[in-house]
Amino acid sequence: DQQVKQNSPSLSVQEGRISILNCDYTNSMFDYFLWYKKYPAEGPTFLISISSIKDKNEDGRFTVFLNKSAKHLSLHIVPSQPGDSAVYFCAASDNAGNMLTFGGGTRLMVKP
Amino acid sequence: EAGVVQSPRYKIIEKKQPVAFWCNPISGHNTLYWYRQNLGQGPELLIRYENEEAVDDSQLPKDRFSAERLKGVDSTLKIQPAELGDSAVYLCASSLGQNPLVYEQYFGPGTRLTVT
Question: Which end of chain B is more exposed for a tag (fewer CB within 10 A), N or C?
Fold first, then answer.
């Protein structure tokens, strides 16, 4: 039973355009959400997070939106750059800070 | 500052053989995690240590998997005997504390295990 789902295994975007990566969750106890970025042969690195008390968090070119009623979050990257090409994982935790539950990842390819 | 170090990076073994993975966390990080990442999936937590104590090992298949962090620094994850389904990337991560809402987890590059 996947509690965090990333339904698009891959996404291809032209350089300079917006990339939108989506994530859905089923556990209503999840209160905190994170996005990780992973390059080949490297471990995931933290990118951006959002708490359920907010519906938006922005950091430079990266913005995460949370729709708690729909149990949906998305990561927007604008403008997209070739160096953004990587696998992006969505992760969630409850407010007690228990274990992170990861989605299956979305491979983003930004074409020059 | 050195990141999380894992070795080996790759391991190929035949089924029923034992295998061990080693992790050295970032200096000063009290919390250490072992994750398993199957192909096309996200990381899944196997075990979490707070110093030398395993505080969450509910996801660790204890019939064949074992882990230790004897001095509260580096850690070893062992599989004995390995099965075909154990083929995956084994990731180690560390953080200053155990609450992911407060403390960022830093991941190592992983060990890719192939069981034939």
Answer: N
